[in-house]
User: Fold CAF17 C-terminal domain-containing protein from Parelaphostrongylus tenuis.
Amino acid sequence: MSIRRLTHRSVLILRGSDSLNLLQGLVTNDVRTVSPLKAIAALFLDVKGRIVDDVIISRDNGDILVECSSSNKKNLISLLEKYRMRKTVDIIESHHQVLFCTEEAENSFPDPRFSSFGRRLYRDEAADIGPDDDYHERRMECGIAEGYEELGGLLPFQVNSDFLNMLSLDKGCYIGQELTARTAHTGVIRRRILPFKCESPLKKQSFIMQDDKKVGEVISCGSGFGLALLSLSAFRRPLSASVGVLMIIRKFDSLATAVGGRFGRLRRFADKRNCDLSSMSTKHLRRMLQERERQEKERQEAERPLDDEEEEDEPLSRRTGPLNRFAALQDDDDGDEAAEKSEGSDENISERPCEERRLDVKTRDKRKTNKKGKNRREDKEDKLDDDQLLEKILTENRTATSEVEENEEHLGVAQLLKPDPRLFDTAAELKRALGKTFKESASSSNRSHNSLHAAGRIVKQKNTWPPIRNLGLSMELDREEGRVKWFKFIHNAQYEELERLCWVVEDEKISDPGLIEEILAQNPYHLNSLILLANVFRMQEDITQSCDMIERGIFYCEQCMSSSFQVTSFYHRMDYLDYENRAFYLLLHRHMMNSVHKRCFQTALNYAKLILKMDPQKDPLAVLLLIDTIAIKGKQYKWFKEFYQCCREWKNLDALPNFCYSAALAQFLDAKTDDDFDVADQMLTRAICAFPGVISMLLDKLQIEPDPLVESHRHLGTFALNKETDGIKLVYKIYVNEAAELWKTPETLSWLEHVTRSCVEGQCYFKEMESWREKRRRLLLVYLRTSVGWHFFLD
Assistant:
């Protein structure tokens, strides 16, 4: 293709020392990367985050060239004039013509959106130029929408700005940045512009139909290719375009079919069963790409043979301690010792893995003791006769073989429920998710009053809180049951007097915070008063103050804990039946829910582990009804599956509908092969047969009209749900309220519809539902107690 003039594009010149500063606060890309040899593509947004125009920014000596839509040039100039204010910038309409070519030309530069797409150049006059029809066909084939007519009013992610190098998520603030950053954080993208092939041109804004339902519309169309804004739930299914008469779009396919390169690479990594990259969010695509590249790199390193020099150099690269200058004198001796050890390694090959697993379960502060104990055990084993030694080796081999057959070594419940001290801070998780765009409101708010006060392991102290002093709360060891130690808080006489006054406020349901503030004036860290005041602030929609009250209470509890109490230890617990401990439970639960509302799911999961490990047998706040959805929302699929397998029999998790459905959902979201998807189908089928009422309640929550076959089914319909007991419906409601957003994505909805229909049509599944009708009432009876109702009340 020869040089083509793009009549629909124009050039503006920004001249002045503040030109880049002006653009930096207005466009979606980082203009600091612009150089004479490198241009960038970007978008102008309005205050609502909608696209105003797409531009290509380049540098010509000291001037900044902004290529924009000719039809929208006046509006773009007005926008620049509006935000220029006192900046030293002149905005000039250029007479440059925008030219396009597929081969290198003088003063041309590659299109920054797609390097293999073509090259652009600007000239005052151009001769021997052809029409730009083939240019539009080329960009539509590559999935590139251009101009205000095609992009106006859409969102950046809908126009594939993340694929086309038009968006920077760490450049800082700009007009319309809030909605874009939130979309990137949540990863929810429901529509995208996709290319399609057609037999004849389609009219703009023609509806794209699927089963008599509108799923998209045509943005632009040429003679052979076009662009459509399509709902991702309809991707890779039969589509039609309505233009007076019904016309079937032939070979409608993804970006990866029309173009190669980056789109094709992402598609290959996103190929999950019948799901394609278009049904996945940008955030998931990037994470999947990074994970696959990391696994491929590890596999290559594992398969690559090491030569002698690499084997000798590897231990030196891992040495972090001080260098022994006399180590070279012992090289020969070390080599002989290594040879002797290698000869005996075959004898202990079956013992080493089990021994290492035992050591891994131990805590770090007891490693020296464990090492001595290990030496003593080895001395005893040397004295065993041959029969005992053979029996020991066979036993350990059987254990190792069973673990290999399971293909997964499940961690103990103590390890699974051990909270991570680094994951207690919601601000840190937001910072990890949003990067440089996140800034704390006050960096000094987390500083303590002086160096004598601990910063806090669970909650960081803020300088707005009153100073800590002896206010009547302490902790002592209550009892010991084997390795388990039970602790409880203690109130002194002054604290008990304030506690009785707080009961009066709570019993009479006084909503006036005046009495509560009087109690806090005497004791600014009275726990139940902080909880009541936090509820008042929450009803007044002052979420910041409500969270501050909860965090203050948790921090004070931590400062009053006994020095022998280890908050993250599985064997150090607190009984909820002790009245003095209940305030700490309620504070942790409310802080966990606050983390969920902030969408800090890793932090919320860490608090859920802490609450559950304090009394895992009784689970007084019914955290088991919530921990599954928190883990899946936080993408902790591996941890959840290990927890489910480890506690399945101990806690009878198959009797809880939330775990049955969440286990299937986690298996589906983490599936990588067809076998994984088949397992997910089987798990969801079992969940539907055991608890069919969840389907009806979930569809009602999502405001989806159920299929007539489902609605008329004896077990899946609304009539069958109404016949369930109030306790079962309460458990259903808790799960549906928490997990609705996980099931509303197009991918999961399509999977749920497919499996539900197979359950309705299968006669064998009907019999299984009949057998479960009475069984689930007996199984759920143990959970339908005070803790479930208390959990629903707290939520």
Remarks:
- The chain is about 50% helix and 15% strand.
- The first strand starts at residue 4 and ends at 5.
